[in-house]
Amino acid sequence: LAVSMATARAAAKALSLPLYFYLGGIQGRKIPIPMMNVLNGGVHANNPIDIQEFMIMPVSASSMRESMQMGTQVYRKLKKLLNERGMSVSVGDEGGFAPALRDATEVLDVLSEAIKNAGFSLGEDFKFALDVAASELFDERDGMYHFNGEKVTRDTNEMIAYYEALIEQYPIASIEDGLAEDDWTGWQEMTKRIGSRVALVGDDLFVTNQRRLDAGIKVGAANAILIKMNQIGSVSETIDTVKLAQRRGYHTIISHRSGETEDAFIADLSVALNAGFIKTGAPCRGERTAKYNQLLRIEEQLITNGI
């Protein structure tokens, strides 16, 4: 992957083109909506919360500049709110907080309060996205999902019912890895029941692999895919997977990894492919803000060029 990325950068430089323009041509012009991971649980945190990531999406923003302003305001209000409750405000490797909250409902209530305290409307200005990382909760021995923090176990049908209840209560736009990576039958059922109301994102399910994505498309599993270049191994294969997903009507989300550097390649990639969404952490920590800063630069270039 490193060689593939370096080759793309060298080609863009040789042609005196911005990387996003080299990768996407004149069609690459869409700035993605950021999915900001602001609060963590699961294996990302040492707290009782079983779901791995809680993200905020500034859906009413008309630009990347406005998205960052809105997201940063909510992030600061969240920090203040947690401070006032005597909770930890140290951040994890994706910039999210990891307070000792009880469960998803309590987390979403706190995030809702932070959004309102920042002067925004829940559902209209911001929506939520979850990364459940259900494969981490699944135990093959009994076929159940173990929420150890809540001291609850759920089977596949109960997991889907759980999401149905959350969607009814909160403006959730996206649920990533809601079931285990090989529970194809469960993914089909989940897509039938809630796929028309929320993006059901396959990360562990698809691993940026065209063959797994094609299998999911054929059986009607999920309606969105998380794209991580190092899962498939080259820029070309990544682009091919994104194009397959887009042809078949699947949402595409370009994603960072937990162990990141300040390289901002995925910012250019998200614009080049008109991915629509990018997942690159909270507005905190240099390796996360590097991507946001690059998107701001790209937006300025597009505006300057009248695109």
Could you explain how this protein is built, in words?
By secondary structure, the protein is an alpha/beta fold. It has helices at 2-14, 19-24, 64-84, 104-117, 156-169, 184-194, 210-219, 229-232, 235-247, 265-272, 286-304, and strands at 33-34, 36-40, 53-58, 126-131, 138-139, 144-147, 152-154, 172-176, 199-202, 224-227, 251-255, 276-279. The chain has a nine-stranded mixed sheet with strand order 1-12-11-10-9-8-4-3-2. The chain has a three-stranded antiparallel sheet with strand order 5-6-7. Helix 7 links the parallel strand 9 and strand 10 (224-227). Helix 10 packs across helix 11.
Characteristic key phrases:
alpha/beta, nine-stranded mixed beta sheet, 43% helix
Determine the oligomeric state from the structure: single chain
Helix content class: 40-55%
**Helix segment tally:** 11
Classify the secondary structure makeup into a structural class: alpha/beta
Q: Helix-strand pattern, N to C? A: HHEEEHHEEEEHEHEHEHHEHEH
Strand residue content: 15-25%
Q: What gap, in angstroms, lies between the N and C termini? A: 30 Å
Query: Which outline best applies?
Result: globular
Helix/strand layout:
Blueprint: H1 2-14, H2 19-24, E1 33-34, E2 36-40, E3 53-58, H3 64-84, H4 104-117, E4 126-131, E5 138-139, E6 144-147, E7 152-154, H5 156-169, E8 172-176, H6 184-194, E9 199-202, H7 210-219, E10 224-227, H8 229-232, H9 235-247, E11 251-255, H10 265-272, E12 276-279, H11 286-304
Parallel strand pairs: 1-12, 4-8, 8-9, 9-10, 10-11, 11-12
Antiparallel strand pairs: 2-3, 3-4, 5-6, 6-7
Helix pairs in contact: 3-4, 5-6, 10-11
